[in-house]
Amino acid sequence: MIAFLKRYEGLWLFVHSPAAIMAAVVAVVILVGAVLAPWIALVNPYDLSSFSLFDGLLPPVWEDGSNPKFLLGTDDQGRDMISSILYGARLSLVIGIAALTIAAVLGVGLGLAAGYYGGRFDAIVMRIADVQLALPAILTALLIDGIARGILPAAIQQDLRVAVLTLAIALSLWVNFARTARASTFVQMNKEYVQAAIMMGQRPSRVMFVHILPNILGPLLVIMTVDLASAILLEATLSFLGIGLPADSPSLGTLIRIGMQFLLSGEWWILWIPTLFLVALVVSINILGDFLRDVFNPRLR
Amino acid sequence: MLTIKDLAVKFPSRFGDVSAIEDVDMTIAPGEIHGLVGESGAGKSTVGAAVIGLLSTPGYIAGGELTLGDTDLRSLSEQEAHAIRGDRISMIFQDPQTSLNPLMTIEDQLVETIQAHSDVSQGAAVKRAVDLLEEIGIDNAATRIKAYPHQFSGGMRQRVVIALAICTDPELIIADEPTTALDVAVQSQVLDLIRRLAKDRQIAFMLITHDIGVIAQIADRVTVMRKGRVMETGDTEQVLSRPTHPYTRALMDAVPPLDHRITRFRTPTDAETAPPGSIPDNAAERWLLEGQQHELLGLTLDGIHLSFPGTRTSIWRKPDPFVALQDINLTIRPGSIMGLVGESGSGKSTLAKAITGLIAPTSGTMFLGDNVLPAGRARKRNDPSRQLIQMVFQDPYSSLNSRHRIGDILSEPLWLYGFVNDAAERRSLAAAMLELVGMAPDAIDKYPHQFSGGQRQRVAVARALLARPRFLICDEPTSALDVSIQAEILNLLKDLQSVFGLTILFISHNLAVVRQMSDDIAVLRNGKIEEIGSTEGMFERPQADYTKKLLALTPVMPRTWQV
Amino acid sequence: MVYFILKRLVQSVFVMLAVAFLAFSLFRFVGDPITQMTGVETSVADQERLREELGLNDAFLLQFGRFTADILQGDFGYSYRTRQPVAQMIADRIPATLELGLVALLISLIVGIPAGVYTALKPRGFATQAILMTTLVGVSIPTFVIGIMLIFIFGVQLGWLPTFGRGGTVQIGGWESSLFTIEGWRALLLPALTLGVYQLTLTMRLVRAEMMEVMRTDYIRFAMARGVPMKKLHYKHALANTMVPVITIIGLQFGGVIAFSIVTESVFQWPGMGLLFLESIRFVDIPVMGVYLVVIAFFFVLVNLLVDLLYVAIDPRLRVRDVQ
After folding, report:
1. Could you tell me if residue C302 is inside a domain?
2. What is the pLDDT of residue C26?
3. Where does it reside (chain B) (predicted)?
């Protein structure tokens, strides 16, 4: 019984944490909506023929002058807000998850190897990490974006925006993974099971990935959720600054930037509804991250 | 003076309250050292925490009486209880390395404590603190008091901790494993100090420990606990020499004697296991015996030196290297057990790591049988010694990968060394091996955390054996285990050694355990071998002064008490 | 101790060199500096001459050495866009960003540390849960959204505070400060709050986590068992030990404050370095980008060196040598 509970403690805690459940529901709903966007959205915001200027600036249904077809209203171009948000969230999530995957593979790989081999290799990786730390995430991302503008010919810049943005975010996040993986690996290296494996003559790759990696997944998972939130925020921020994605392929950040034009006019929904969505998404991810941290570090409960 | 009656402590959990201790009765008179002994999970620390009112949250006292003099400790408010702490009841923790605030000088910590409980001037408080440190055996107390905790050695720190505990003249001190983290010599000094304080100042001590030797040496009376309940209580001599409760008797049987050798430990009949050899025709046993390509294999260390580069603290000076081992010459006879004893930091584990190739000696040669044993990185991954030398580690909670199933852990040596290429065959062999070390074969699909420390150590032994080793290093294999479990594991190791003709290097800080296990013995101190010879010879006629001192200071039960 | 500081100094120099190298590579390889500096009408021969004059044909390391030497002398080159010396452009903008960052940092420390201590000491209280939930939402709202909300509420709806620019500034020895006029403070308040909120949540959570960890240590339990007064226990023993790791991380975060001021400056049109950097990115003004990078890294390194000194002051284990 006790063993069973220990094993599924995370699940038990989850069922008894209303905040975590709610966060999971919100995150899953947004995720599913984003994945299914092309099938469930009313209009395709990328396709000019699917919406009409005549539907422009309609308020949400609960306000006067609304059209029940557009539940949360439309923007100045006549795009349905819900559709824009679904497509926007789709793009934000694709970029966020792709960037996170690159950052995790790079960071965990380097951190694990640095912790395992130690010595000079570790010193080099950590010095690179130091430099990266001196240039905070948003700066790195902006910089890579700027470089891409300088290097790439204008013609293909537009096509590569998503890739550049993803890479920029990935490169600004890998340090978190590398440092966490390295620190955890150092702890594991002193454990006797690792010494036993090395002593027996097992291959370094096996010791790293089969023995150590499963034991450091906990803290990495926490970093992963927290950094997914960071990646989404970073993408939104870059797009908001007008550096990220152009207005014709709007992510959540771009939608907010567009909405800013309506800050002083009456069309509040164009700004605040995408904002609310973005915040809801990030809050849920952060709540889940917090929950995971509690599960893996019970002493802070 | 301290009276505990029917004390019960509970910890609320998701499934109702869990009882930590129940029906605990105890009295301690002024000047009395009252031993509270038991294995892990007995609830002895909980008793101490309940008395001083520092139960870890969310634990609470569910019933019973706690009185100190004529004060009812249970009726006190939070503030009153805090005022009594330090003033009338104080506490000593196990690890002096962590019990002092690293950012404050000893003086600040002492003065603050004195002033918290009596209205004295700064100057008077400092004077009292200095006097106290001198009384407790710290030289140059007037200058040393200005130092920070990290500037004291472990033993000195524990003295400072004791000074802090007695600086307000408490009536009762709860000492929770006060000497467990200390070396034998320091331990004996600290125990003397406790005895002196009890006598001179009439302080009552509740001495919580797992070490029967410590109890035998200084406790006036003793209470034996098990699983949250009191088993037996009485005068130390009476309880230890004529135990009435079967549990106490079993416990006493499991304690390895220092002054003579016994062939096997008597373990409680309800032990989870049968001794090996009692399983007829075990597949793993057959497999192991079949595979012995080598005769008995000895190990020779010839002039081993090992030093680490020191940590650099200055730009001008090259750091002095830290010398871990110097001029180690050691021959372990084929098929024998060599005991290696020494205090912490003597280089025992470093020696083990050098033999296993985890670190390289600075100079010297190692021989396995007649072949040179490559050192450190020079030892290839496929060097035959990787298979011939196996190790059983100290901490069974860390030596098994908690994310792997027992079956996977045990199969690893089988495929790694190319013994068995068929997965199903590996599995059945692993199951048979589990049986051989006294575990149920169905453990194979479970994870390490589903087992107790003793069971895990059996799995660790099984893993080592499945490599078909000829040489086994046991690095403090039982020091993380309770004494009754220790007895079982030691019996197991003895049996396996005799069946499979293993050569064993048995490392321990516990002299009594080494006496029971080894044929020969080497005493290590500061990286040098002080004495080497046959076990019986050394225990009966120690030559080196250091060995004599160690033997004299190790707390033991008087022989006359032994059952 | 001297060794510890020197070691950190060497590490800092390494970081600075690496960043300078990055800036140099940017300058050298992102686009051709010559085509950027000259117009279309310049002949190929003239371009080649200029290239030779500027030493762009020299060995790579020599060029880098010259670049570093120039930087050390305060010569940061010229902007492609405005043709002005970059050093002057940045210097004009530094006060605005530094004041913004400093006030934001102060806000985050003054609110964040007490809140962290409170939530650590009363982990089960209602107020704690409320604070924790608020901060969780706090870290999840992007800085620019916080800025927009503040502008919307205090600027647009209530009309209390200005929504852009620095307001009244005073020249003090070449330093253009907004800290000495009411107008200046009014203009500073919203941007500093925007920048500070995120930092505040991080500081609070960090202090809380470290403090809870410290409260569980043996020396705190021992101090408790000796009856050390609770106030002393919390604020002298526990808080001091909490601050040791917290200081390091706050030092690391200062770089983040400066970097995030890019966003804040953009939202409030605050004329600081961040805004300059954004413009330089938009126009691929490589020299400005490179220098901004070097300046940011310099602040980061400087703050962390100060933190190391503070560390030595707090922790005797670094200050006092082992006697035994």
Report:
1. no
2. 79
3. Cell inner membrane
What mean pLDDT is predicted for residues A54-77? Answer: 71
Closest partner CB to A283 (pick from C11, C136, C213) = C136
Calculate the alpha carbon distances from C208 to A34, A208, B459, C202, C249 in Å: 36, 33, 41, 10, 13
Does B150 contact chain C (CB < 8 Å)? Answer: yes
Res C36: pLDDT: 67
Asked if A201 lies within 8 A of B381 by C-beta distance, the reply is: yes
Domain membership flag for residue B76? yes
What number of C-beta contacts closer than 8 Å exist between A and B?
A: 57
Q: Tell me whether C259 touches chain A (CB under 8 Å).
A: yes
> How close, in Å, is residue C154 to chain A by CA atoms?
13
In a domain, B278, yes or no: no
In chain A, which residues touch C (CB < 8 A)? 19, 127-128, 130-131, 133-139, 142-143, 145-147, 149-151, 229, 233, 236-237, 240-243, 253, 256, 260, 263-264, 271, 275, 278-279, 282-283, 285-287, 290, 299-300
Do B141 and B196 have their domain in common? no
Together in a domain, B142 and B212? no
Angle at C145 between CA C179 and CA C127, to 5 degrees: 85
- Quote the DSSP letter at residue A205: H
Average confidence (pLDDT) over C292-305:
86
Instruction: Tell whether B218 and B296 lie within a shared domain.
Output: no
Read off the pLDDT of residues A147-197 as tens digits, 9 standing for 90 and up. 887 777 777 777 778 888 888 889 888 998 999 999 999 999 989 999 999
What band does A21 get if pLDDT is binned at 50, 70 and 90? confident
B348 and B448 inside one domain: yes
Q: Which has more pLDDT, B562 or C99?
A: C99
Tell me, what's the ipTM?
0.85
C29 near B CB under 8 A: no
Question: Which residue range forms the structural domain that includes residue B138?
Answer: 98-169
Q: Which two tokens stand for residue A230?
A: 């960071």
- CATH number for the domain formed by residue range(s) A74-296: 1.10.3720.10
Contact B525, B342 (CB under 8 A): yes
The domain of C253 spans 86-282
Q: Is B510 part of a structural domain of the chain?
A: yes
CATH number for position C272: 1.10.3720.10
Neighbours of chain C (3+ CB pairs under 8 A): A, B
**Which residue is closest to C142 within chain A, CA to CA?**
A233
Interface size, chain B vs chain C, as Cβ–Cβ contacts under 8 Å: 98
The answer for residues whose C-beta is within 8 angstroms of residue B193's C-beta and 6 or more apart is B136, B137, B159, B162
Q: How far apart are CA A245 and CA A235, in angstroms?
A: 9
Question: What is the side-by-side strand order in the sheet with B363-368?
Answer: B322-332, B299-308, B363-368, B371-372
- How many residues in total does chain C contain? 324
**Across A53-62, B485-494, C137-146, which has the greatest mean pLDDT?**
B485-494
Question: What pLDDT is attached to residue A300?
Answer: 45
Give the gap in angstroms from C-alpha B156 to the nearest C-alpha of chain C. Answer: 11
In a domain, B523, yes or no: yes
C125 and chain A in contact, CB less than 8 A: no
Which residue matches tokens 């008793």? B47
**Which residue from B414, B393, B389 is spatially nearest to B469, judged by alpha carbons?**
B389
Instruction: Give the number of domains in chain B.
Output: 3
* pLDDT, tens digit, 9 for 90 and up, residues C223-240: 999 999 999 999 999 999
CATH value at residue B373: 3.40.50.300
